[in-house]
Amino acid sequence: MAKKKILNTQLPNSAKLTDKHADEIKQATESPRRQPLEAFTKPTAVFTQALAREIVRNLTTLGQITSRPFRRRENNEKVQAPNLGEYPMLVDTSVLIDGRLLPIVNSGFLVGTLLVPQFVLGEIQHIADSSDSLRRAKGRRGLDVVNKLKGQKVNGYLKVKIISDDAIEVKEVDHKLVALAKRWSHLPSVRQVRLITIDFNLAHLARAQGIKVLSVNDLAQAIKMSIVAGEELTVKITHEGKEREQGVGYLTDGTMIVVDNARSRVGQDVLVVITKIHQTPAGQLFFARLK
Length: 291
Description:
Elements: H1 2-10, H2 19-29, H3 45-62, E1 88-91, H4 93-98, H5 101-107, E2 112-117, H6 118-128, H7 133-151, E3 158-163, H8 173-185, E4 194-197, H9 200-208, E5 212-215, H10 216-222, E6 232-240, E7 247-250, E8 256-260, E9 269-280, E10 283-290
Parallel strand pairs: 1-2, 1-4, 2-3, 4-5, 8-10
Antiparallel strand pairs: 6-7, 6-9, 7-8, 9-10
Helix pairs in contact: 6-7
């Protein structure tokens, strides 16, 4: 008790030690022991803010984050539009490995900017590395088409850009293309993005979501020869047909003509008369007889 009195007399009135304070000092000087959870004081808001500022400062110094303040983008704030060029056209995998896009570009019918995403190139590279010889050949043809498109100088009104933009929220390449086209088409400073493909399902999916589709298959059908029943043509019989005595030939645009009684004329050019026209999902099929 005497020791407590001495301590009290040596301190000013504003800092008199009470019995409680003395006990706390005694506990602090004793050997450390585990404190109950309730003994710790919860961090204050000021402490939390100071700690957050220190973390941000250290990360900024290390180059992990920008020093610009964090803020939420307002609804009316404009998003910076990517530079997609004039009349942007997204190119899918199928139209590149098909090979017909290159002569169409060289013909001058396409004007604008072809956009080839990196994830499309990745899929073509994966096909080119396939163990299947047919798939491998198609993949290599697709890579060759991309290189020739980049270097083509025949059509001065068309440019090719390899873009790194991606739609990470989806996994499939077709869905990524649709997502990118929709995202860009909603930007006021970007013209409507079109999608070039020969994939029927992708074209159907894109059109259902309001995306303009340029189908090479539709173009091929549109430029085929217009043939009517009764018209005479010269066609080369290349192989036998499914039915008895039938022979099959093709016109220069790929149109197939089935000719009755022409099985024995395989390898020959024959004059035929168109007798019937049949419409199929893939296009028109013509039937004919020998003249």
